[in-house]
Amino acid sequence: MWTIVKQIVRTGILTEPAPAQDDALHLQADRIQREILDVLGQALTVRQVDAGSCNGCELEIHALNNPYYNLEGLGIRFVASPRHADLLLVTGPVSRHMEEALRRTYGATPEPRLVVAVGDCGCSGGIFGESYASCGQVANVIPVDVAVPGCPPPPLEILRGILTAVRRGRTSAFGNGSIATTG
Amino acid sequence: MSMLVPLPTPLPIRHGVVDREGWLAVARDVLDSGGRLVSLWGSQRPSGAVACAAYAFSVEGTLAWIELPLAAGDGYPDLAGLFPAAARMQRATMDLLGIAAAAALDARPWLDHGLWPLQWRALRDHAAPPGATAELPSDYPFVRVKGDGVHEIAVGPVHAGIIEPGHFRFSVVGEKVLRLEQHLGYVHKGIERRFTELAPHDAYRLAGRVSGDSTVAYAWAYCMALESAVGCEAPPRASWLRALMLERERVANHLGDLGALGNDAALGFGLAQFSRLREDWQRLSFDAFGHRLMMDCIVPGGVAVDPDRSLLDGLSRQCAAIEVELLTLRAVYDEHAGLQDRFIATGVVAPKLAAQLGLTGLAGRASGQAWDLRCNPSHPPYDQLDVTMATHRNGDVAARVAVRFDEAMESLRLIRAICAELPEGAVRDDLELPAREAVGAGWIEGWRGEVFVALELTADGRIRRCHCHDPSWQNWPVLEHAVIGNIVPDFPLINKSFNLSYSGHDL
């Protein structure tokens, strides 16, 4: 027990420090939190769906949960059911075998649902393209609000994609310009 | 085995053709001498289909790639009776190529979910699939368990976490698992057909995306296969840098898994600690190699990046720092009564069962299967680094955790040794494709286990066939055994302790 406490104290708080002018990363994080609070007035819940990825994107989405990015501290949380989700984070070229599962997951997500496609494959089909086994980009199967390129995109880019989707979601859900922008 | 021809690879790999009797004789010979089946696949040649198998021999550590030419409509002798791991590979070969194992017990489709045109085979028929296909996947005939109080729990394909998709069907009484049956293939995205559309010099990028967590292992295995087909070897500095990246990939994955395993046993502290170490690790990978996962850094003929001395020193310093942290965290894990209670005697695969089923790689070593390509047969640069293999005999979650700690520590030592002894020189040679048909093979000990690539080139320099084999093929069926008799809530922990690839398996 003491070893654990000692290790926690020794590690300290790693979450990248309070807004500083030379720290672009944290300025981003701070703004994201305010944006989400403005739009939803609550935490943002995310359901991740691997629709055919090579699992590279999953590694970077996992990294979003590490103490450096402290996603939960920003009010963003991954949930286990699409019925609890505000936003779907979809990776991969959509494999033919996941096409129906992705459609049903989308159908089970309550409105106003947002969709962020993550990675080159999600954006365009990537190196796998379209074939007998691949439907290509996520937008070929369900409507996509924001596509985040990269192979895989680093965690901060994924976070940026979520923010962008939340902004667009506000525009469509509440009418253009009806809520003051804060970013 | 004298009819086999050695391929020019850094590891001893031989290749040859057998007849039907030879096909079974080799399999029995391998089994009797304590060897193992590495992979089973097929290929469509202009002269007809061939069935292929790759075996590793235990003593010499050589790999034999044998093939059996088939007359049209012919099957090949079933190997699942000798090597249970062959069963799913045979079913996949039927789905993709239309060649069957004769009289196999399980002839259900495996990768084919009933959405592809009937009788159209992705690796046999060059033309694109004809017309429209079915809208919905067909029902999979799971084996049903009957009896008082038995019920089924269906999980997936979309899982409740940041995990790849697949379907698990549990038959349980109360919380006790009587049977688990997997249904995979959901992330099948046509990788092996896609290979045939890419130029050999470019296809390393596709190989690096077979399973993102093993991008270095696959890229190296593919490049080794191409280099052996061409008949050249990467320069010494390149092979040392490849090993440097492979060990960094191993450490990254072990750090991630060790954190997730703590978390799955309700020690959130473990996840927080290990995930920060992994983030430090990936950030330095980006600084040194330009990519957080080191994708596309291994290229045909060598490597695409050559970190300078100051970056190499930085990598060494990070190893020293992480080693201290690992020792502290290992003591925490070892002394945590709650954690050990969850880890010990959970998800047991005894060494005997592991040997029968062909459990391989990291999970195999945790069940007494002492195979590691870095030690035997070894190859440059590992033959100069005196790698210590990590093994355990208990075969439970605790053993798989222990092997990860041991291997991570050994990799930290190896990385420092590589940084210190890295030879000078070029890091990339030009490859010229031969103006003839050629085959090549690559065989690499990735963090999960052995990755194998068998490559065939046509005389006009195209890829006729590129077969990629992930160790998950062997280990997924063993997971079904590991979970028997455990309770359902322990499944995530047991599953994570194997951490198998869906994408690498489904292709």
Structural features:
heterodimer, A: 183 residues, alpha/beta, Rossmann fold, B: 507 residues, alpha+beta, Beta Polymerase, domain 2, Cytochrome-c3 Hydrogenase, chain B, 2 domains, five-stranded mixed beta sheet, three-stranded antiparallel beta sheet
Describe this structure in words.
- The complex is a heterodimer of chains A (183) and B (507).
- Chain A is an alpha/beta fold and 183 residues long.
- Chain A has a single domain, classed as Rossmann fold, CATH 3.40.50.12280.
- Chain A is built from six helices and five strands; from the N terminus they run ααβαββαβαβα.
- In chain A, strands 2-1-3-4-5 form a five-stranded parallel sheet, sandwiched between helices.
- The longest helix of chain A has 20 residues, at 155-174.
- Chain B is α+β, with helices and mostly antiparallel strands and 507 residues long.
- A five-stranded mixed sheet of chain B has the order 1-2-5-4-3, covered by helices on one side. In chain B, strands 8-9-10 form a three-stranded antiparallel sheet.
- At the A-B interface, α1, β1, α3 and α4 of A face α3, α7 and α8 of B.
- What is the rounded Rg of chain B? 22 Å
Unreliably modeled segments of chain B: none
In oligomeric terms, what are we looking at? heterodimer
Q: Assign the structural class of chain B, choosing from mainly alpha, mainly beta, alpha/beta, alpha+beta, or little secondary structure.
A: alpha+beta
Mean pLDDT of chain A, nearest integer?
A: 82
